[in-house]
């Protein structure tokens, strides 16, 4: 760790914090630009009740005051206020409850995508232009071109409704199979292609030729020299992969009725539960920003050849 | 003539300075016309079978989505069972492929010809084939125009930032950095869900109303968020191209800046721009279908491929073809656009070849 590394890390952390602040601010003001406010569309209320409710939720104060309070509550207490539609429940509680399920689903999907992606990518690179490489590339290209909600519904249709292989509901572990498959197919295909191209790149390097010339055995070249270096670009994909899994989980949880954050988020959008929409957006966005940050820093720290500019 | 050796004189063979004979001149004649950058690229592109097939598929899909709705006997919004002054004829709802409604059956028995419902009808009795065609048209149009918006904004900001440089560049690039690190999909959902409600009243009565608030909010979202990578790309291009050795070489041989721009900067820049615009289109189609699936896409009764797939979820068991057809079309479009974009890149930007 030299000063250059430290400066880079500080700069990236600063940018990440700034981004999170922008997310909070944009979310807040965008939500307050909605005409009518959150209580429009509720069953008929008298003006007094309306005023009492607005006072309770602090909606009668000037927007800037509300903004400062909102920001302060998040920073000091990690409090996003109460939910408007689910009476008596805090946004934070709803999110954390859903997060348990969603995190499990997302982590398994990420893990599966990573392992299978790296294996398939390496196989494709080592058997370049052979049949197996062609098959892997065709399949991954097809998966990359298919939106997750279509993949999910097709899997639901064929594996669950028609063949009854897996339950459609995501409560038991068998129920997790289909959502995990749906979520991991796209990142898996992406990692496969990423690993393949970077592996091909590495295999053409001088040090691999040197190792071969020295008489190092094939597997030892791959595991000792090639794989480690070809995995470096995969690290940069961690952030985007998490972003994909988070947004993908919105539809996947909807399709397979998994009780996670994604489903709560979609429900809050249709039900116009503003504090919940804001809270979920901010927490998920911060998660993605932090993951991107970690991926970026790891990328630079792992590979000393990359300059800190 | 005998050659005399003169000391302190450069030994020059006078024969080298004789005018060329016609035989010698023939060596310099070009056997084939010189090819331009564009013609070279097209030639390379057409050699790439995958890209050519993708291009043909894109052309067929685009043309049929433009032409078919005007010649098809059914329209995407007409509910066939509903006619003025009569009770709703429910026999038209949920027809299977090549089935007919009650009044149509009567017509066929009377010897009249009735145009078949190739994919049947949907739950509201609308011809499903034409809805697919129209949905394809909407999805393609959204993808195309969204990419154009991204291109224009990105090009403007990128070139301003690249040309002016200095503090302007610094400020713009910091803004770009922040927008770039925003999680785009979440912001898109947030903005789309809010704009959907704000825009509805704002555009009432104007020409924009026909397009629908949701599509406009989609365009606004694209214009707000997706220009950043394009502007980064263009700024980078301008910055690096200005410093290239071949530009210096051209300058040193006396080329005017007009020539340099025409022969060096534009050909080197335009291919990157076109390619990334082409690759932006499937991205936009993806986003639109995703939002439609969450109920934030096009306004009903207008169909898009995403909303058709999402509507099909309700009857997934009995009418699974209604999901599978838009799924196939959307995957086919995105796949061929991606493959064609890759082909374009290989053909027009040999530098990017990995």
Summarize the structure.
Chain A is an all-alpha fold and 309 residues long.
Give a written overview of the molecule.
The complex is a heterodimer of chains A (about 300) and B (about 350). By secondary structure, chain A is mainly α. Chain A contains 13 helices and no strands. With about 350 residues, chain B is an all-alpha fold. In chain B, α5 (about 130-165) packs across α12 and α12 (about 255-295) runs antiparallel to α14 (about 320-350). The radius of gyration of chain B is 30 Å and the shape is elongated. The model of chain B has no long low-confidence stretch (mean pLDDT about 80). At the A-B interface, α1, α5, α6, α7 and α11 of A face α6, α7, α12, α13 and α14 of B.
Number of strands of chain A: 0
Strand content of the residues of chain A, in percent?
under 5%
> What share of the residues of chain B lie within helices?
55-70%
**Gyration radius over CA of chain B:** 30 Å
Query: What is the helix tally of chain A?
Result: 13
The proportion of strand residues of chain B reads: under 5%
Q: Considering DSSP H and I runs of 4 or more, what fraction of the residues of chain A is helical?
A: over 70%
The radius of gyration of chain A is 24 Å
Number of H/I helices of chain B: 14
SSE string of chain A? HHHHHHHHHHHHH
For the sheet with most strands of chain B, the description reads: none
Helix and strand arrangement:
The complex is a heterodimer of chains A (309) and B (354).
Chain A: H1 3-32, H2 47-56, H3 63-77, H4 91-126, H5 131-144, H6 148-162, H7 173-203, H8 206-214, H9 218-230, H10 232-236, H11 238-255, H12 261-270, H13 274-302
Helix pairs in contact in A: 1-13, 4-5, 4-7, 4-11, 4-12, 4-13, 5-7, 6-7, 6-11, 7-9, 7-11, 8-9, 11-12, 11-13, 12-13
Chain B: H1 22-28, H2 37-47, H3 49-71, H4 102-109, H5 128-164, H6 166-181, H7 184-202, H8 208-211, H9 213-225, H10 227-242, H11 245-252, H12 257-293, H13 305-312, H14 321-348
Helix pairs in contact in B: 2-14, 3-5, 3-14, 5-6, 5-9, 5-10, 5-12, 5-13, 6-10, 7-9, 10-12, 11-12, 12-13, 12-14, 13-14
